[in-house]
């Protein structure tokens, strides 16, 4: 879990630099503090990005101090906890934090190379051109405004691997991947509403796992909302789903 969270944190650092370079409103910052990993985005529409992770029972006091520090420039961070805190959870309540909706971390070891996607009803191709990829990705997410601008900046990163699933010659789904050491972060996945339920995301998951294994990765990581279609796809693809408790100022 710590390797998975560290890879997500490294990816966040790259993405937030891309957001700054794109001139997105607000302030972006990614930093480490006393063994914790902090991410801040001050635009209220991007508030879900502001988090503190890497929390253990031993670092709960430092996490509380960080949550109440002036470093956030008006952002309201969420404390995301991947391990059982035991009695230390009472410290969070005493500090004025309350549980909110859980977040999901999906992790799979890449000990074996997945089967080829050859012969599938859909095809997967590299999306070397940003335009078609972003059109499908954003249409699948059904977002606009600041969130769409952030996703656009994120997926224009030079290190981003982008893929499209095709039905014939028609792009119907998009997915992306970055590699951090020996950990592949599978992110940015959506399907056009009219083409959902055709197995596009399962195919894109298998394709990315195969490429990650070929690149020497030993772990694949993704995030999703609990009980979502994405979570179900990840579970069917052999990922272990780990619920992470989330805490915010009450």
Summarize the structure.
The chain is α+β, with helices and mostly antiparallel strands. Helix content is 32%, strand content 32%.
Mean pLDDT: 94
Individual helix count: 7
Number of domains: 2
Pattern of helices and strands = HEEEHEHEEHHEEEHEHE
Structural class: alpha+beta
Report the CATH C-level class of the largest domain. Alpha Beta
**Radius of gyration from the CA trace?**
18 Å
Strand order of the largest sheet: 1-2-3-4-11-5-10-9-8-7-6
Q: Give the overall form.
A: globular
Helix content: 25-40%
The third-level CATH topology of the largest domain is: Aminopeptidase
| CA-CA gap between termini | 27 Å
Instruction: Give a quick account of the main beta sheet: strands, pairing sense, barrel closure.
Output: 11 strands, mixed
Mind telling me which CATH architecture of the largest domain this is? Answer: 3-Layer(aba) Sandwich
The number of strands is 11
CATH superfamily of the largest domain: Gcn5-related N-acetyltransferase (GNAT)
Q: Which parts are unreliable, with pLDDT below 50 for 5 consecutive residues or more?
A: none
Strand content: 25-35%
